[in-house]
Automatic annotation (TrEMBL):
Pfam families (UniProt xref): DDE_Tnp_1 (PF01609), DUF4096 (PF13340)
GO biological process, one term: DNA transposition
Domain Transposase IS4-like: 105-233
Molecular function in Gene Ontology: DNA binding; transposase activity
Residue intervals of the Insertion element IS402-like domain: 11-89
Protein name as annotated: DDE transposase
Amino acid sequence: MSQRKPYPSDVTDEQWALIGPFLDAWRARRVSVAGRHGEQDLREIVNAILYQNRTGCQWAYLPHDLPQKPVTYYYFAAWRDDGTDAAIHDLLRCQAREKAGRREDPSAVAVDTQSIKAANHVPAATTGKDAGKRVPGRKRGLAVDALGLIIAVVITAASVTDNAIGIRLLDKVAEHAPTVTHAWVDAGFKQDFAVHGAVLGIDIEVVKRSDTLPGFVPVKKRWIVEQTLGTLMLHRRLVREYEIRPESSVSRTLWASMATMVRRLTGTSTRTWRIQ
């Protein structure tokens, strides 16, 4: 990494030791026609992606001492399209689970959705309006394990029902974590979702919110996915839907999750943008 003043979102040496080998192996497999492997500092590319995720800045506003849009977007899109970001994310999740004393593969997930307003340049064909929450934009669906680590992400128009999103999430869970046999959800997920879960061998448990206790009360089992959705909001790029392609939103979510996991694995933290 070039000598410059670090940003709070930069990966540390310890954190890069977790991510770097995978990206070095990725580059080793990609040889140009001229026989070159590329000369860009991949650590700085990751730092640029994490900086933009954390601050929410536009491409043109990336600091001059970080790689600029043409090169950063090239790698961001390449890792998104060939599944490198998802592969690294899943490997980090296995390590984080092992460090917490869990088995690599989860047995249960909590599922929920979050409606996000879209910026005005996001294509209308990929957005809609959440009729219940009256939010125009997209929906982010998550399935997380008991530690709040992401197992599956689905991005759709906000007009898509929780049921439809949940079915897509269950398919991804069954593909990437076939050990899962139980899922906790809220009452927004209906019979079709439960039937699909049964077909996949996943028992669906609806955990209802209590109406008898005053104030905010964390809902048993479901609170963990709500906490994860809230933590994602610390990454300003995810507070509003800016991505043209839903696939880019999935990748942004995975990068935010990776930033959290490498901090867990190395026992470090990132300064919040809130005033102390």
